Amino acid sequence: MSASAEVDFCRAVVMNYRGVSGSLKTPRSYCGADTSDVAEVVNHVKDLYPNLPLIAVGVSLGGILLTNYLAKCGKENADSRVLGGFTVSTPWNIAASCKVLEEPLNYYIFNRHLAQNLCAAANRHSEMLSKVPGLDLEQLKNVRTIKDFDHNFTAKMFGYESADDYYKSATPHDKVHQIKTRLLAINAADDMFSPYDAIPKEAAKENPNVCIMVTSHGGHIGFLEWNPFGINFVERVFSQYVKALLQKPEYGRLQFQPEEVDAAPFTAIC
Predict the structure, then answer these.
(1) What angle do CA 132, 22, 113 make, to 5 degrees?
(2) Residues labelled catalytic
(3) CA–CA separation, 55 vs 53, rounded Å?
(4) Nearest alpha-carbon partner for 17 in 3, 8, 30, 36
(5) Model-level pTM greater than 0.70?
(6) CA 40 to chain centre
(7) How far apart are CA 15 and CA 41, in angstroms?
(8) What is the pLDDT of residue 260?
(9) How far apart are CA 130 and CA 63, in angstroms?
(10) Mean predicted confidence (pLDDT) in 182-198
(11) How far apart are CA 198 and CA 172, in angstroms?
């Protein structure tokens, strides 16, 4: 997506999660509820280029972070410094996502492998993370699911009592009404990481700043088309959305309709 944005008219800035692209510099990781790093990047870019519009994109966990950031700014009546947000495959209700991912087939295909990768990533930074009070990396040996990891690692890292406590704080589905920055979200009805019933469709209808586009197919960050080497559905919608924002930034209710939607049937919930 960043490549297509560069070709069209944008310069892309990518935020890497702490410890993902290299060594962990401080005894702190990342989670869906902690939007401080997003705020730091947004403010840094806007301070460098105060006169340029900034459009923020979040994919999967990044969608959770971006949505929570925009909701936090809206709740506090603070300027998000973002012209518009765009998210792809956001898990709107994390508890509901975990429940689906713990079903037998999804557990064997996705959940256990993701949990193993999360544990491996944490263990790579064991020396630095050993400085976190109350965090015992030995407990990761007992992790079998993503929820296990969040209970034994994420909750301890960020001061939550349990994974459920963390999920209540991080899940964005009940914060849609707080968003005051324009947001276009793309989800697929067949995404096991974001169950259709958990998408906040009614809340989006009540907020003129939010539009959720739900395609019939696409899975989790799929949205493939017949030409794997060309611009895909998400990239095309993103390009059209950005052009609409830049051409008419003063509009009220978000009335976005893609120019070409032959790739997949969709419902736009605005």
Answers:
(1) 80
(2) 60, 191, 220
(3) 7
(4) 30
(5) yes
(6) 17
(7) 7
(8) 46
(9) 29
(10) 96
(11) 11
Contact (Cβ atoms closer than 8 angstroms) between residue 210 and residue 204? yes
Angle between helices 61-75 and 36-48 (to 10 degrees): 80
Tokens 């069209």, located at residue: 8
Q: Which ranges in 159-264 belong to alpha helices (H)? A: 163-170, 201-206, 233-247
Of 7-11, 115-119, 236-240, the least confident: 7-11
Burial 237-261 (b: 16+ CB within 10 A, else e): bbbbbbebbeeeeeeeebebebeee
> Backbone dihedral region of 253: left (phi > 0), alpha (psi from -120 to 50 degrees) or beta?
beta
Cα–Cα nearest to 192, from 76, 105, 70: 105
Per-residue pLDDT for 5 more than 80?
Answer: no
Nearest to 214 by CA among 235, 231, 237, 190: 190
Q: Is it the case that residue 4 has pLDDT exceeding 90?
A: no
Tokens 């994390």 — which residue? Answer: 94
Instruction: Return the H-helix or E-strand segment holding 269.
Output: strand 266-269
- Mean of per-residue pLDDT scores for the chain: 89
Task: Provide the token pair at 46.
Answer: 């806007």
Write the CA distances from 177 to 42, 95, 188, 250, integer angstroms. 22, 20, 22, 20
Any residues with CB less than 8 A from the CB of 269 and at least 6 apart, and which? 199, 201, 204, 205, 211, 212, 213, 214
Structural contact between residues 54 and 209, judged by C-beta atoms closer than 8 angstroms: no
Look at residue 229 and tell me whether its pLDDT is greater than 90.
no
Residue 135 belongs to what H/E stretch?
none
Nearest Cα neighbor of 73 from 91, 86, 85 is: 85
* 6-10, 169-173, 260-264: which is most confident: 169-173
